Amino acid sequence: MADPTVIRFEGQWYLFPSAGLLWRSADMVHWEHVPIEPFDPGYAPTVVVHRGWLYLTASWDCSAIWRARSPLGPWERLGTRAHDADGNETWLKDHTGKPVRWGDPCLFSDEDGSLYCYCNLGREVEPSPAHPWRITNDVGILGIRLDAEDPSRFAEAPVKLVNFRPEHWWERGGESNHRLDAPVLEGAWMTRHDGRYFLQYSANGTEYRNYAIGCYVSDHPLGPFEPQRRNPVLMHRGGLVNGCAHHSVVEGPDGGLWCFYTTLVRINHPYERRIGMDPVAFDENGELYIKGPTETPQPVPGGEAGEPLVALSVNCPAQASSVREGRSPHYAVDDGIRTWWEASSGETPQWLEVDLEATFPVAAARILFADRGLDYAAGYCPAPYQYRIHGSLDGAQWSVLADLSTNAEERHIAYHTWTPVPTRHVRLEILAVPRGMTAAVWEFTVFGRPHDAGLSSAP
Questions:
Q1: Which positions ≥6 away from 49 have C-beta within 8 Å?
Q2: Mapped to the 3 state alphabet, what secondary structure does 26-42 carry?
Q3: How far is Cα of residue 27 from the mean position of the Cα atoms in its chain?
Q4: Torsion angle, CA of 335/409/4/8, rounded to 10 degrees?
């Protein structure tokens, strides 16, 4: 799940990611999957509330404007079907009436009633050994004012707003930002704040850990735009959360702005991704930045901050009931998203145990299940895990900290809290796994408050 657009509509939040999904929340914390008609509006969808309607569009093969009164639809497609110069189907026409397509669009409704789209615009170019990352023949971000009566038509010619700048190192291609050829600028998003326009974009490719968000600023929706001094506004190469870009910004229940962004997993597929969220802020110079990415528990939007919990288990000694070759228990506590512990067989129960090396007031744990054996074609699909979390002072006498032995909720990332308990050893006991899968964990993280732990250490 990736490329999220989140909107606030009639007191609720709706998350539109790629690949035909829609999620709804009343608090931006608890989300439920809801149906949408049509089922799959396309990759990198964007949705905006404009003049009492919702408008939706998506990328390339799904270049069309849809309109509805509710996020759930039904959505009505505007315009007429045509084909561009390369024979690709589209429902969009430029200001001259020529059929066109766009990539990674962002629809933006301005306060004066105008409707804009920020996007890539050009022909898709097939990857080649010389240009493995090329997406379009016109690298950069464009702005387009759309026809007020028929948003499937451009009101005027597109304006190039952001070009690739080699001195912007985060825009260069490759894991080390070393490629100057065929850069990728995509995933535009527009935020208006205090009368200024903040045009955000993503570079250098969603398949890289250093995928980043940059930002330009202008006093007008079609520029001219200049880059912020504070750039990139979000980037992280390591840990559990990296490849943080292709995002959207929405007002949360606390009245502040929140960024929902793509994060990279890249284990089962080069474009395997998830979604994260963090607050947006403006510094003393009025420049936009994102307070993230965060990898530990955070206050809910509008909630009490309280005393933060910290990860206690990272790189601590770990052991397990069984181990598949090359999948050490240490990989489940190394704070990395692309390593995991895996049991030697599909038999259950299995367990994974971590020694915190001192006694701490342990208050929470997070589990990222690895779903090893996942195979949709064979019918081996995500399903609930059943498990318990145990705690011990000596590794011999155990008490239950969290009991999910009858769990019926499928949750790729599980997070559980309890009243702090003095604990040194923590064991995850996996009682049942989805059909066809093996007990495996990307990361098992134990949280607490170390400054309360004292200085005692076990022999």
A1: 7, 9, 109
A2: CCCCCEEECCCCCCCCC
A3: 18
A4: -130
Ordered by where they begin, the domains of the chain are 5-290 (2.115.10.20), 310-452 (2.60.120.260)
Q: Which of 365, 355, 354, 367 is nearest to 440 (CA)?
A: 367
d(CA 324, CA 342): 6
> How far apart are alpha carbons 235 and 335 in whole angstroms?
17
As a whole number of angstroms, the distance between CA 356 and CA 316 comes to 6
pLDDT, tens digit only, all 459 positions of the chain: 899 999 999 999 999 998 778 999 999 999 999 988 877 778 899 999 999 999 999 998 889 999 999 999 999 999 999 998 889 899 999 999 999 999 999 999 999 999 999 998 654 445 445 444 334 446 799 999 999 889 999 999 999 999 999 999 999 989 999 988 868 899 999 999 999 999 999 999 899 999 999 999 999 999 999 999 999 999 999 889 999 999 999 999 999 999 999 999 988 888 889 999 999 999 999 999 999 999 988 888 877 777 789 999 999 999 999 999 999 999 999 999 999 999 999 999 999 999 999 999 999 999 999 999 999 999 999 999 999 999 999 999 999 999 999 999 998 899 999 999 999 999 999 999 999 999 999 999 999 987 655 444 443
Q: How far apart are CA 402 and CA 431, in angstroms?
A: 13
* Residue 193 token pair: 């704040």
Q: Token match 């089962």: residue?
A: 268
Closest residue by Cα to residue 175 from 131, 151, 207, 199:
207
Cα separation, 222 vs 214, in Å, equals 17
Classify residue 153 by its DSSP letter.
Answer: B
